[in-house]
Amino acid sequence: MTPDKNWVVYLLRCTDRTLYCGITKDLEKRLVAHNLGKGAKYTRSRTPVILLGTRFNMTKSEALKLEHHIKKTPANRKLTELDIGKVDPKMKNTQILQDIQKELQSVVKNIQQIADSLKSVATAVDKWVQPDSPQATRTKRAPTRKKVVVKDGVVEKLKRIPASQIVYDIIQKSPQGIDTAGLMKATKFDQRKIHNITFRLKKLGRITTGERGVYKKL
Fold first, then answer.
1. Coil, helix or strand for 79?
2. Fewer CB within 10 Å, N- or C-terminus of the chain?
3. CB neighbours of 24 closer than 8 A, spacing ≥ 6?
4. Percent of the chain having pLDDT more than 90?
5. What are phi and psi of 171, to 5 degrees?
6. What share of the chain in percent tops pLDDT 70?
7. ∠97-65-39 over CA atoms, to 5°?
8. How far apart are CA 44 and CA 48, in angstroms?
9. Hey, is 71 helix, strand or coil?
10. Is the pLDDT of residue 139 over 50?
11. Which DSSP symbol is given to 142?
């Protein structure tokens, strides 16, 4: 019975510059598997891999012996040891396989670029929809309040009313008093601004705080 001489010993360079030696009966399929992370355990985290050399027309026993020999050979001599011996006339296929490797590397790179682009788009969309984003905050600002100054029946100028005066006027017109929520609703100011204004007004002795945080005019 004629021995099966369809086995190939191959040598790869991994992405971390280390070398890997293996055997197969279908070199093209095996290389694709390596680059998809489905090959040997050693190469799964070291893709993409590049084909450095091959030895064709071997029985499984011969391939296993050569593989074992090359794995024990120093890295700088592995390729030389693989090239020693009869070279298969079909070695021109090696260039085709190397071209396949380049195409696979290009595909991997393109996929990574697409993934990075999608991540950037997702980040931008996430910032745009955040309710507490600066854009959203700016839309919640209270409208500017101005006082019309009329002299002899003619509008002389528009005078801006201070925020503290606006809050004080509302408290003054509330006989039963008014709390923070009521002031926020009436002025469109945020809670922090209301607290700052009422703190100053209390310090100046213009208002007082009653029960349950209700502000009243002194």
1. helix
2. N
3. 7, 8, 10, 30
4. 34
5. -65, -40
6. 77
7. 40
8. 9
9. helix
10. no
11. P
